[in-house]
Structures are given as C-alpha cells and as structure tokens.
Fold each of these.
Amino acid sequence: MKKEKSQYSESTNVPGISEFFVQKLLKKLKTLPEKVEEIGEKTAFQWVNEMLALYQGYRNFLSANHEEHFKKAFQQKILVLTNQSAVLKYCYDKPRGYAGDFGAMELIWSGRQGPKYCGYTGLGAYLNAFTLETDNCRANEYRVYYLKDRLIKGSYKIIASIGSGSALEIVEAVRDGYLKDSEIHLFDQDDGALDTANFGLRDFSGRLVIHRGNVLRTILKEKEKGFDFIYSSGMFDYFDITSAKKLTQRLWSKLAPGGCLLITNAHPENPTRLWVEYVTEWDLEYKDSDEMKSMSEDLNDLKNADIDMDPYGVYQYLSLYKR
Ligand SMILES: C[S@@+](CC[C@H](N)C(=O)[O-])C[C@H]1O[C@@H](n2cnc3c(N)ncnc32)[C@H](O)[C@@H]1O
C-alpha cells in the first residue's frame, strides 16, 4: 500500500489512540441492530461508514509499525463480531485456500439479490447486510452488469474469459437470450469454478470450451487463431504490475486484429479498503490509473486504450483495442 508521509512520531501513543478508536467502533457495531430499527438501514449503515472512512484517514498517516498496532487492536476486538456474518466469515476463512475465489463473488452476487440479512447470530445478520451494501460489494455487482453489457454490445464471435470464476456475466447474458452463436472459452485453475460455470451454461447453444489449469500455461497452449474479445476480471488484482504487464503481453498476442482486451483492477482509493483488509485479510495488488495505463506500453498494433471507473471508485476497466 502506498503511504502518505507518516504524521505521528514513533513516540506518539498510537496504540492508545488505536485502542480508543477500536472501542468506539466496537460499540457502534454492537448497537447496529437497534440503530437500523431506529433510523433506518441506509442512515445507520452510513453512520458506520463515516467512522470507517475516518479510520481509513487515520490509517493513511500511520507508519508501518504503528499500523501493525492498529490492525492488531482492530482485529482482536472486531473479528469476533464480523465472523458472525456469513459473507465475512467465508472471506476471512478462505475455504478454497486462496483469496479472491469464485465462491466469494457468488455470495456477494446472490447476497445482493437478497436476502441480505444472513449470519450465524442476529448481529451477524446485520453485519452481513451492512457489508453487502458497502461500495466494494456494490462494485462487484456492477462489474457483472458492466461485463454483461460489454459482451452483448460487442457482438463478438470468439470470447475468452481469463480467471473466469463461475462466469456470472456470461450466464446472465445467455439466460437473457444473448451470445447464442458465440464460441466461449473459460480459463480458470479452480475446478469448482469451472464446474459451476458449466452448470450455469447448460442451455448455452454455442460452443463452450473449458481450459482447466494455471492460465500462464493454458493460454500459451491455446490455438493461434485469435479471440475477438478477451477479458479478465478479478484476477489481475492478484498480480503485481510486473507480472500483470507480462500477462497482458501474452493475452494481447492471442487477440485477433480488430479485437478488444479488457482488464479490471481495483483502484488504491477503494473507499471500502479498511473493512476489506482488516476484516477479511483480503489484500489486493491495487493499481492506480498510471499503472493501469502502463499495461498498454509496448503492445504491437495498439489502436487505442481507455479506462472506465465504476461509480463507486472501486474497480477500473482498461480496454485495449487492436488495429
Ligand atoms: C475473484 S475470481 C474472479 C471471477 C470472475 N472473473 C469475476 O469477475 O468475478 C478470480 C478467479 O481467478 C482464478 N485464478 C486466479 N489466478 C489464476 C491463474 N494463475 N490461473 C487460472 N486462474 C486463476 C481463480 O481461480 C478465480 O476463479
């Protein structure tokens, strides 16, 4: 994480301040159910978000050593509450052995369709609903609609999703009657993700090709014939910029003339970052817009590149068009 210059000297009683902040948050979270009943869900969730935004500001001014204290104090008191929420517990536990698995995306997607109040305790249910209403979860839902729209509007013949997960956006597009004659290639290393996608696409009338394994190997083996649309969503967030550039080069070489390569990545200013990182231990390789743009360097036959940002300030969408 890029840090501002530390504001506090090492002699400042940051552990004391952090402890005070955590106590205040603890109280807020414990009284969330009553607050929702009293002032309504939207205002009550905003009431928590304002405190988290304040704490993110505080965090930005901490040295690495001080931040360690803050995170530890936070987790010691707060995890026992947040792990009562179904989605937060799943994200914290990482049952598939790694962060960023398709199961978390499925939980967010289906959770946002409702019911949102799902937890192991009453309070856990409220914290679950709170989390599903954060900018991060809204942005994840938006991502499915954004990609679905790009798939439909592009009228592409041969499509590849890299790190497809369960390919929610393709399932949604197919369910609505689109992509009938397309050839769709799904690349993922997680059998569970691909099996779920395969099931979701059981009525798909086009050609579905599934590539199991690490994409660094499977994409290399793929036929030379180009894809019209290659996209990777929710996967570059786990690659540092050097690896991301290498993967971009590889994907670019598989793109047909006139095709488009689309890459998503979370932005460092993600407003839900404190909650995501402290409560779920979910650390991403955030990239700012300059780093995103740098991924288009040295691409042969690049016609143009543009970046969209979602309305929540969480995910960027880099589109690279080939001549
Ligand atoms: C967060 S999910 C994203 C799923 C979906 N594309 C989306 O937008 O929600 C990331 C997916 O990338 C896959 N993945 C991560 N690294 C990979 C690699 N090196 N090779 C193949 N798949 C990978 C994971 O298995 C997981 O299904």
Note: The beta strands are 158-162, 183-188, 207-212, 227-232, 255-266, 302-309, 315-322.
Amino acid sequence: MFVLGLQGSPRAKGNTTTLLSAFLDEVRKRGGRVVTLDATKMKVLPCLGCGTCERKGYCPQDDDMQAAYPLLRKADLTVLATPIYFYGATAQMKAFIDRSQALWSRKYALDLEDPGRKWRKGFLLAVGATKGKNLFDGTILTARYFFDAVGAGFEGTLGYRHLDKAGDILKHPTALAEAGEKAGELAAPLLKRKKVLFACRENACRSQMAAAFTRQLAGDRFEVESAGSAPTREINPVMEEVMAEKGVDMAYLKPCAISELPDDWRPDAVVSMGCEVACPTFPGADTEDWDLPDPSKESMDFMRNVRDQVEKRVEDFILK
Ligand SMILES: Cc1cc2nc3c(=O)[nH]c(=O)nc-3n(C[C@H](O)[C@H](O)[C@H](O)COP(=O)(O)O)c2cc1C
C-alpha cells in the first residue's frame, strides 16, 4: 500500500506537520509505504490557465509538479494536510491543488480513466486558530474537488480548531490519537489486498497493461506492481495509444526494474507475460506464465490483439 502525504504549512514543526506525522506514522507502523511532499518546499508554479492540459493532457510548466503527478497516480491513499489561512488552504498548497487541473483534464476533457481512480482514497487534515463553525467549510469544498481531479474518493476530514501557536496540537486531548485511528481505519482494507507482480522483459507493454487492467477492475482486492528484467526508459507509445482506445489512461507510468521494487514488498503471486523473463524467485509466491507474444516491435493491430488477450487473462485472474 502506498500513501502520499501532502504537507501545506510553511511553519517548521507546526501543528499541521505534527498532525500529518501522527497519521503517517500509523500507516508505516502497519506496513504501508509513505511519501510526503511538502508543498512549501517544492517549486510549484501557479496554474497559468493556458489550456494546454485540456488539449494535450499534460502541464507544460517545468517544475516539481512533474514529479508529483506520478505519485498522485500511484497513491492508494492521499492525505492533504493544511493550516487554514483566510478560510482556505495555504497559498503553497493551493498552487499544488490548482496544478492538479492537468489530471482533471485527462479525465474530463480527454475522457481517459486513471486505472486507480475507482479505489483510491483521499482524506483532509486541517488546523485553524479560531473556533468558528464554518472554519473548515471552504477548504473541505476545495479538497472535495481536488480529490475528484486526482481520482480519489473523498473519505472525510479531521479539522481541529483553536490551535494557533506551533505545538498547540500536542496539548490537544484527542487530535493525534484520532489521526492515528483514522489512518488505521483507512489503511486496513488496503493492506489486506493480495499483492501481485506482473513481470515481463521491458515493462513497457504487456506487464503495464496487465497491471492497469487489474488495478482498474479489482484494485480493491489486489495491490499491483509491474516490473521488467530489462526495463526500457519509457513505456511503449503504441501501447499507450491502444489502451487509450479503451479509455484507459497510462500517463505517468514508467518502466521499473524487478530489482528496483521495494525490498519489503513481497508479492503473493508473480505473473510473467512470456517465458523469456528471468524472474527472481519470491519465496512462497504463486507463479504463473501467460505466454503472451511480445508486441513491442509489431504493428498496432498486433498490439491491440495482445491488449485484448491481456484484458481477458486479467478478467479470469481476478475471478480465481
Ligand atoms: C496568513 C495566515 C492566515 C490565517 N488565517 C486563519 C483563518 O482564516 N482562520 C483561522 O482560524 N486561523 C488562521 N490562521 C492561523 C493558523 O491557521 C494557525 O496558526 C494554525 O495553527 C497554523 O498551523 P501550522 O502550525 O501547521 O502552521 C492564519 C495564519 C496565518 C499566518
């Protein structure tokens, strides 16, 4: 399970970072993988409203968001954490949120479905100084649309009032325990999923398609990785195109070496796409080979045919 924390307070050791840490520490304790992006330390340019993403599906601004998009796509759970500034998120977090428009465009302008969309979860953590009834309303509304743009179901908010000085949250009677409890509650079903590795040589076509279909059809039951014994630099553009014909969005995916998988990630099942792959042995994992032809240097029709075979194999696989 992979959890992405988004930190929005510019204050070192502020209430937001402490609250987010309580949440993420619980995820780690339970065996989840965690990455935190600190929006206040990243170079994130404001959205220019240029419309490139709506036409082409990507943002042309060259900054740290380009590394954030793949993480937003990979996350099983995204936690947005921000102090309240003028009844909204901080400016740094708002810039990050606005730039998620590139992902919004892929879905709503280009009609492409992120394979993880149906199962990904989103959660909001917020803190503010005052006690106002409506203190979190604006930020909750923004978070709702942010999570929709990044393809995550909005699971709710923990918002804490009357916290002003850095460290005030440490005196709060329940906040840190509640953040830990919520993390455990959200992580539990994700951690129970069966771990599957789809492997091929280049991790550019077949294993990427298998992973995407499995994620899309049964991401609630399977935690999926794909990797290759000799990965290429980029995924195959023809594969990306034939998957787009089926509405499946393969953006932001990169080939990965089997040796680059996290050390502590132990698959329950390893599925190789063709017997040319020298898979390392994963003790205790079920193994099977789908014996699919390598489409990497073949025609588009050949790629379509392999795509359909992969889809069918995945449909059978998830029923087992
Ligand atoms: C520019 C600015 C705007 C703020 N606006 C609000 C506000 O609208 N409502 C509120 O309750 N607190 C407001 N605060 C207070 C912070 O939300 C509060 O100090 C919070 O605990 C800071 O969290 P942190 O320690 O994680 O940075 C504001 C603080 C700053 C610096």
Note: Residues 45 and 302 are 42 Å apart (CA to CA).
